[in-house]
Amino acid sequence: MTAVTRVAIAGGGVTGLAAAIQLAKAGVHVDVFEAKPELTALGSGISLQGNALRVFDALGAWDDIRAAGYAFEGLDLRAPGPGAPVVASLPDVKTGGPDYPAAMGMPRADLTRILFEHAEAAGANVRFDAKVTGLVPGDDHVEVLVNEASAGVYDLLIGADGLNSNVRDLIGIETRPEPTGMGIWRTFVSRPAEVERSELYYGGPVYIAGYTPTGEDSMYAFLVEDAQDRFGTSDEDATRIMLEESRAYDGPWNSIRADLEQGAHANYTWFTTHLVEAPWNRGHVVLLGDAAHSCPPTIAQGAAQGLEDALVLTELLVARDAVDQQLWDDFHARRLPRATAVVEASVQLGRWQLEHDRDADAGGLIFGIAQRMAEPA
Q1: Domains plus CATH for the chain?
Q2: Which of 98, 134, 164, 323 lies at a 20 to 30 A Cα distance from 238?
Q3: Could you write out the three-class secondary structure of the chain?
Q4: Average pLDDT, stretch 178-185?
């Protein structure tokens, strides 16, 4: 017997779909409500650490994801300037354990599509153009309103509806994402044969210039700068800015610039962060993933933490007989300290760069978090 028989999930992104897969596999009736009109994924590519890959295996989606992505080991650091020499090749901690690659890159759209297909195959119902707009709490249930009309009564509503979560607002949590002071340009381009792992350039006109392979023929590249009012920039100007800011970087950046000159799209966002203090639930409504916590992608753990949220919660829901205080205590004990450590470390790494702190032990902090993530959630 499971603690729930009917669950509503707000949000059809990585976290929401992961929860849908696990619950539907256990025989739970699952309705996923996605506000967008169709399956989409913002951004270009995504970096996934080993602990995220471990979750994909638990979902039963690992074989499909492995085939669609680009697995690699290690991280190269290059210097800006002529030739872009590699100054260090660092090993990665295999946070998923020895059975998985240390890291993987893949197009975000492919990841979302694969999880959507697995959710539907497991029996979850996914509705698009369906925004959770209200809720009516009860002692042991919650009535969910979608597009202002009742969608039914559920044992649990999972708010996995992202950074600007409407479910978070509906349950009265006022925590909001706040800018960290950095902004990032991203583009999706072809992969030069020499790029076989993530590579980062520190120094030069921006804080970080880097790229991650996402497939045999693709990768995403990025430039991290001081946060600026770039919003509303035309596509032409966005490409021009990314071209200009990347000229200090040689090596594979020459190929990236060639793709930008041929029309590769550049997009811009700010780094933000937030962390909802415990509890993440209000009665029979709970926040997961970016609705509950977010951080800059400085250690590439954002998606992994949302996936772990989903895996831990569904494990407890399937193993227990009731949605009670003990379930929530156990959930928060397993998730809050781990997510907090990732958020704090990710923000600290960026703060050190903003402050130009040359004495900061960035390597030690990254290694310490990786060691912690190597322990299953």
Answers
A1: 6-69+108-177+273-373 (3.50.50.60)
A2: 164
A3: CCCCCEEEEECCCHHHHHHHHHHHHCCCEEEEECCCCCCCCCCCEEEEEHHHHHHHHHHCCHHHHHHHCEEECCEEEECCECCCCEEEEECCCCCCCCCCCCEEEEEHHHHHHHHHHHHHHHCCEEECCCCEEEEEECCCCEEEEECCEEEEEECEEEECCCCCCHHHHHCCCCCCCEEEEEEEEEEEECCCCCCCCEEEEECCCCCEEEEEEEECCEEEEEEEEECCCCCCCCHHHHHHHHHHHHCCECCCHHHHHHHHHCCCCEEEEEEEEEECCCCCEECCEEECHHHCEECCHHHCCHHHHHHHHHHHHHHHHHHCCCCCHHHHHHHHHHHHHHHHHHHHHHHHHHHHHHCCCCCCCHHHHHHHHHHHHCCCC
A4: 97
